[in-house]
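Reviewer 2 asked us to include a model.

Predict the structure of this chain.
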Amino acid sequence: MTKFTGLLVLIFVAGLAYLALMNQGVVTLKLSATHVLELPTIALILFSIVIGALSMLFVGAVRDARRYYETWQSHRQQKKYQRIQESYSKGLDAFFATRYDEATELFNRILEEEPNNVNALLRRGDIAFNRGDMVRAKEFYLKAKDVRPQSIEALFSLEKVFTAERKWQEALRCLDNILEIDGENPRALYGKRKIYEINKNWEDLLDTQYKILKSDISAEKKQDENRKLMGYKYEVGRDHLEKGDTEKAKKVLKAVVKLDKDFISAYLALAETYISEGDVKEAEAILEEGFEETSSLVFLVRLEDFFITVGEPGRIIALYQKAIQANPNDQKLQFFLAKLYYRLEMIDYAYETITGIDTATMDYPDLHTLLGGIYERRAQHENAAEEYKKALQFETPLLIPYCCSNCSYISKEWVGRCPQCEHWNTLTLDLSGTCKL
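Predicted model (structure tokens):
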């Protein structure tokens, strides 16, 4: 390399000598009106070369200095980032371990170096929220949102505070802002649905439910959401009924029954709608149709009350007998018929029916209670006492409760939707005592 450099120098000197030989003239430079400078041509050439070389050196020096500064800044920022990340990681560990004082100190350390650190602001807000300080939580979340207006996490955090404060409109506004950013955000849609459900705003909830079904969810989830759609349609019809708008109620409930023939709640609500209008025959037809479609004993219980109220108990007896003929091995039907006879004080019929039940396969407390009552009415007091003792041996209640087939929730009254698991159409008569209190 040294030899090559020396060769270049020799060539350069030889070139200068050649130029000096060929350019022996003088160049006149007029500096002003009175000052004139005469330079040999070769001197001007050398001067130009020197100026050019110095310019290149200067440019190179500036470029190197800038690179050095940028590298220094980059290293400095990298160290700061690593320091912040280390503090944030330790802060998260403390946060999830509920060591909130330690976590607060670490997140504050980050905010001292970087006041607009969104993650640290959000975590400080989370700590305040978990401690029940909604005012401070909101302050941190709002600052995070100001720093990053499109932050979905900040908007969800604010919605969480407003929901906790039961400020539904503000919470809905946050969720709507999220949906403006991400139009099919499932969590935002579910959040809106929950708020509408809490406030029984069924019409808006139904609109949100359609959007959930259009969003990108799995096939399994879509099937579950379609089931919920039927439930929410039922709630819309039920809401119209409670508000006295029977025409709208009938329209919605008929649509539900048409789409889902097994929706017991919709049949019962539709029958109730006709009863409220005084159309007893149509209500009766709906209840009978519901029983034919679903074979649910709930309909027979309702029809029992219905026919006794209108003074036609023979109609419900005929329905029980018809059902038993179609299902002669269904001992539950025989039990309910015996219970109906007992209710109507047709004691001999009740006795004949209940003694035909095989207690080896159907040994329920209510069966013994009913049989005890029949023996008592027949003045067979010892037999009655024996049956009552058998009934008391069971842990299940003596009145037949309704049981949720999904979560085993017990209810003394039938409701269209289980209050515990919030599933529709799941309450059945728990004659076998499979649900435990």
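Confidence is low (pLDDT under 50) at residues 394-398. The chain has 19 helices and five strands. We have added this to the supplementary material.
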